[in-house]
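User: Some background: our group keeps a shared notebook of sequences we're curious about, and every so often someone picks one and asks for a predicted structure to add to the entry. Today it's my turn. The entry only has the sequence so far, pasted here. Could you supply the structure so I can complete it?
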Amino acid sequence: MKKALYQLAEENNLPPVQHMDRETFDWVVANRPVLPDCKLPIKEEIREIVKKFIPDREWFLTSELYDSIHGIRHIGRVIANATNLTINRRIDERTIQNLMVACAIHDLRRIDDKGDIGHGERATTWLKENQVEVEKKYGLKMSDEDMLATTLAIQLHEIPYVIIEGLAEYKKNKVLVDLIKTADALDRYRLPKIKWWINEELLSLHPSEEEKSMAFEIFVKCENEYLKSNDSQGSVISGLNKL
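Assistant: Of course. Here's the predicted structure to add to the notebook entry:
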């Protein structure tokens, strides 16, 4: 009998490519942290932004990861979490645009679902090489300053604060970098070990309990839809509709 992801994680035997299974999903739900019940604010706005910034399948380095735990569903939820963070804070429109692009691109060039050190740098290189295509898809124009900020956020999203906090480039783009790192961390509830879930001690921007609750519910609704349909992209939108 095939073992569930959470069982393989307990044995330190996770495969390079990891797909959510019903047993692991049920395990996550059963271990829900103590969080307040709350509804996602401005659900329609978040759903439309996710629909707009979902990346193309062809942008992934390997098609194997499209449906994996770092694939399109994760990216869609990071976009949703990032949007929710900006709704609750005063963030300028330019930063929001760059944040959405960074969220869309940040994990596209992974080679597997493990640590994969350097995937942020690979995604940065890919964006620089495909800027015109990205601008066309998203209907925007990125200035040189936008590109510097966005690629920096993508590059730094995987690097611990203890390494980046002294960098001048981080200090200049602190808001953008902090937002993507926290939005990414908010989707760690999908990972098959509780100790891998969001840890505020490792973040500079601390989400509220309500924001963590929303992120957990977004995960639950989207993954439940995926397990019923096997449609990764569609499950993100249908999951948001069920909140």
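Suggested note for the entry: The chain is about 55% helix and 0% strand. The mean pLDDT is 95.
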